[in-house]
Protein backbone atom coordinates (compact mmCIF):
# COMPACT_ATOMS: atom_id res chain seq x y z
CA UNK A 1 0.00 0.00 0.00
CA UNK A 2 1.40 3.37 -1.00
CA UNK A 3 1.30 5.86 1.85
CA UNK A 4 3.35 8.72 0.38
CA UNK A 5 2.22 10.60 -2.73
CA UNK A 6 5.37 11.35 -4.72
CA UNK A 7 3.65 12.86 -7.76
CA UNK A 8 4.76 16.38 -6.83
CA UNK A 9 8.29 15.36 -5.82
CA UNK A 10 10.76 17.10 -8.18
CA UNK A 11 12.97 14.01 -8.05
CA UNK A 12 10.25 12.11 -9.93
CA UNK A 13 9.21 14.83 -12.38
CA UNK A 14 10.79 13.09 -15.38
CA UNK A 15 9.04 9.80 -14.63
CA UNK A 16 5.73 11.60 -14.16
CA UNK A 17 6.12 13.39 -17.49
CA UNK A 18 6.90 10.11 -19.28
CA UNK A 19 3.86 8.41 -17.75
CA UNK A 20 1.58 11.29 -18.69
CA UNK A 21 2.88 11.11 -22.27
CA UNK A 22 2.29 7.34 -22.40
CA UNK A 23 -1.26 7.82 -21.13
CA UNK A 24 -2.00 10.52 -23.68
CA UNK A 25 -0.57 8.31 -26.45
CA UNK A 26 -2.80 5.44 -25.28
CA UNK A 27 -5.87 7.68 -25.35
CA UNK A 28 -5.04 8.84 -28.88
CA UNK A 29 -4.22 5.36 -30.23
CA UNK A 30 -7.32 3.73 -28.76
CA UNK A 31 -9.72 6.67 -29.19
CA UNK A 32 -10.33 6.31 -25.49
CA UNK A 33 -11.67 9.19 -23.42
CA UNK A 34 -11.15 10.43 -19.90
CA UNK A 35 -14.43 10.17 -17.97
CA UNK A 36 -15.75 13.46 -16.63
CA UNK A 37 -17.73 11.82 -13.84
CA UNK A 38 -16.91 8.91 -11.56
CA UNK A 39 -18.59 5.63 -12.44
CA UNK A 40 -20.78 4.44 -9.57
CA UNK A 41 -20.12 0.77 -10.28
List the helices and strands and how they pair.
Blueprint: H1 13-30
Number of strands: 0
Largest sheet geometry: none
What percent strand?
A: under 5%
How helical, in percent, are the residues?
A: 40-55%
Provide the residue-averaged pLDDT: 87
What general form does the structure show? Answer: flat
Q: Over the alpha carbons, how many angstroms does the gyration radius reach?
A: 14 Å
Poorly predicted runs are none
**Number of contiguous helices:** 1
Structural class: mainly alpha
SSE pattern: H
Brief description of this entry?
By secondary structure, the protein is mostly helical. Helix content is 44%, strand content 0%.
Sum up the structure in keywords.
about 0% strand, 1 helix, mainly alpha, about 40 residues, single chain
Description:
There is one protein chain. This protein has 41 residues and is an all-alpha fold. The chain contains one helix and no strands. It is flat, with a radius of gyration of 14 Å. It starts with 12 loop residues before the first helix and ends in an 11-residue tail after the last helix. The model has no long low-confidence stretch (mean pLDDT 87).
